[in-house]
Amino acid sequence: MYQDETIVMIGAGNVATFLAVELQAAGHRTGLVYSRTLANARKLGDRLKCRYTDDEGEIATAAGIKIVALTDEAIVAFAEKNILGQGLLVHTAGSVPMDVFSGCSEDFGVIYPLQTFSPGRNPRKQGVPFCIEASNPGSLNIIRALASAAGNQVYEVSSESRMMLHLAAVIACNFTNHMYVLAEEAVLKAGLPFEILHPLVKETSLKAVERSPALSQTGPAARNDMIIIRKHLDLLSFSPELKELYHMITESIMRRSAHSTREGTGD
């Protein structure tokens, strides 16, 4: 339908690079890479052995499935400027509705990879679920084929559900990693390396995956151990910000633990 499903990759960041490389390995040729930074476009273009550009004007005339792997704001801006041209338009964002492209083309959709992407790491080892959506059945079939080629699992998800899923992903990934940052600061204050917490971090993650996170909750808040909680709050005098955060999270865990106990006993 779209010139042997040639890809036009609009963006050259971590998500764009992952998608383009995986799709090429699966037999989908990239015809053009666009980035507003020419050096980034060249880097990905050279890797894929295809044309690259920093000229927005070349996007509209390029033939193929146009995958817009940019920030939320840039996706909206490109749609509003209507410079993407015709054909199947697809974006990769978690929090941008599918119909952002409704004024640009009849064929549009979403291919959202639910994973964290960083340079030098291959997230495919851990698995990359894809959430897809499309304006019509034909476009959905094409997007599903692309997602199946690049990922491990494919889910058809509406824009509303995808937004809530993105919120959950931010809490599970970004917020959790911030907790690791704070934990590292605390353990360094004790004169020890963050590596000492590595086994604990891994075991906690495994339990969350293998069991329900609610069933895996441990610690002083879960068992309402106020003696330890007060000692921790005293220790946190070095960081009022962390002390407030500790207090808020402890209260949240205690409320949920108490609710679970009441449900379990029928009280």
Quick structural overview:
By secondary structure, the chain is α/β, with parallel strands linked by helices. It contains 9 helices and 8 strands. The protein has helices at residues 14-25, 38-48, 57-61, 72-81, 137-150, 159-189, 198-210, 226-235, 240-265; strands spanning 7-10, 30-34, 51-53, 65-68, 89-91, 108-113, 129-134, 153-156.
Beta-strand segment tally: 8
N-to-C SSE string, H for helix and E for strand? EHEHEHEHEEEHEHHHH
Helical amount among residues, as a percent range? 40-55%
The strand line-up of the biggest sheet is 3-2-1-4-5-6-7-8
CATH superfamily caption of the largest domain: NAD(P)-binding Rossmann-like Domain
Under the CATH scheme, the architecture of the largest domain is: 3-Layer(aba) Sandwich
Number of helices: 9
